[in-house]
Backbone:
């Protein structure tokens, strides 16, 4: 017979065994949780970039062992444009759900092998099957088109995407991190779909230099306002000017707007530059009034980012109080300033413009006729000026049908009580064409190039 001591030992052994099993179970559960946290996107629950890098390297190693050519496989980085704006509008929960659905939709694509999601950055990164560049571009285009609108809850949201692509051609394998970085760099300079090339590194390096210099440049008054005259086509008499910007940087040299405005738009710094230019133009007009000199209307471009800026109207009101008048100031906005995902955002943008109009600013719609013009804006916005994009003029030079479009666009602007101005006039033939189509105002190199402030003042004095 077993003694009481023997029974006690057996019980203790069972307890010890149960404790060990519990510890092992807890360790296993803890390890599983750590693995989930390491390899999953917390917001969507889908695999993340870390998992994707390991998965790609594993697949490349397997393809290499099987003597399969992986050089035509690629990384595609899909980015939701202005994801921060979407999050502030609809809430982060909606964006998380949108990113989850985007990731799941891409997982179902047969040309995609693996998907990693970065919800917080608005990115989905995919590893593709080997295919030709043409097939790859077409596949990405088709996917982006099919995913542009998405139902989330009771809302149909527009999800504007851009994409950067880099293949594994010439890349030591396995090296997923390198190719993901290259695709990300391509995405950062993309307006739609962009393949990586070596020049992207140079552009990115230049963009970094611009970002490092821009705030100091504004503080040191390195940005200059140049003025391009606007003319009456028949009399060749000036009727105003457009304020343009140049950057004379000690580090970067003399830069044209096309070299830095896109970077400023991406970083949001363009709103600070716009107010700097407005301040300079207000000051210039005030100085001319105080000197008893004639004041001509000067138009100043305004970024679409202002429309979403909560303090924009208050800043404009402070400018008016500081300089005492709005006389001679015209604000130019493009149609893209009103290209929003929701009708409420668009209505709010229109309200901002109406308030500016009530304050006394003249409002100009710039680049009309480029791309798909939204005629409803002509009805909803209190416009004083319609500026025709140069592409409409150029297209009309060799096409009777486009001349008819140009003529009727000009007539429509006049019928709506707007002054119609055509940009980019470079030849006497273009001037004659516009006059025949009914356009009486324009600007371009044919009449005068942009000039710095002092030269513009002499120009006005000589023609007073």
Residues:
């Amino acid at each position: 017979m077993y003694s009481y001591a023997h029974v006690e030992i057996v019980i203790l052994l069972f307890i010890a065994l149960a404790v060990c099993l519990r510890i092992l179970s807890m360790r296993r559960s803890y390890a599983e949780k750590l693995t989930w946290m390491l390899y999953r996107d917390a917001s969507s629950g889908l695999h993340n970039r870390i998992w994707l890098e390991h998965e790609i390297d594993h697949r490349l190693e397997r393809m290499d062992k099987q003597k399969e050519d992986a050089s035509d496989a690629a990384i595609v980085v899909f980015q939701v444009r202005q994801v921060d704006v979407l999050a502030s509008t609809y809430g982060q929960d909606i964006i998380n759900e949108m990113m989850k659905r985007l990731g799941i939709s891409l997982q179902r694509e047969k040309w995609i092998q693996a998907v990693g999601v970065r919800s917080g950055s608005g990115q989905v990164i995919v590893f593709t099957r080997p295919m030709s560049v043409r097939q790859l571009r077409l596949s990405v285009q088709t996917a982006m088109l099919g995913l542009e609108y998405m139902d989330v809850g009771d809302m149909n949201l527009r999800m504007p995407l851009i994409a950067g692509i880099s293949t594994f051609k010439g890349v030591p394998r396995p090296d997923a991190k390198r190719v993901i970085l290259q695709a990300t760099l391509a995405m950062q300079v993309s307006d739609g779909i962009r393949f990586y090339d070596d020049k992207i590194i140079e552009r990115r390096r230049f963009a970094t230099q611009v970002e490092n210099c821009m705030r100091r440049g504004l503080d040191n008054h390195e940005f200059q306002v140049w003025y391009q005259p606007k003319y009456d086509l028949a009399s060749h008499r000036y009727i105003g000017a457009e304020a343009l910007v140049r950057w004379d940087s000690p580090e970067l040299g003399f830069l044209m707007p096309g070299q830095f405005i896109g970077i400023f738009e991406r970083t949001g710094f363009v709103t600070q530059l716009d107010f700097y230019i407005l301040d300079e133009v207000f000051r210039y007009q005030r100085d001319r009034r105080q000197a008893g000199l004639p004041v001509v209307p000067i138009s100043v471009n305004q970024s679409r980012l202002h429309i979403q800026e909560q303090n924009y109207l208050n800043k404009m009101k402070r400018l008016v109080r500081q300089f005492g008048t709005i006389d001679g100031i015209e604000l130019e906005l493009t149609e893209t300033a009103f290209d929003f995902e929701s009708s409420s955002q668009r209505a709010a943008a229109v309200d901002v413009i109406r308030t500016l109009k009530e304050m006394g600013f003249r409002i100009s719609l710039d680049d009309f006729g480029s791309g798909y013009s939204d005629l409803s804006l002509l009805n909803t916005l209190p416009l004083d000026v319609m500026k025709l994009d140069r592409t409409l003029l150029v297209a009309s030079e060799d096409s009777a049908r486009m001349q008819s479009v140009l003529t009727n666009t000009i007539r429509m602007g006049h019928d709506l009580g707007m002054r119609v101005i055509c940009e980019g006039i470079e030849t006497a033939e273009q001037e004659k064409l516009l006059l025949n189509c009914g356009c009486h105002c324009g600007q371009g190199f044919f009449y005068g190039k942009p000039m710095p402030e002092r030269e513009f003042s002499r120009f006005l004095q000589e023609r007073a």
In short: DSSP finds 16 helices and 17 strands in the chain.
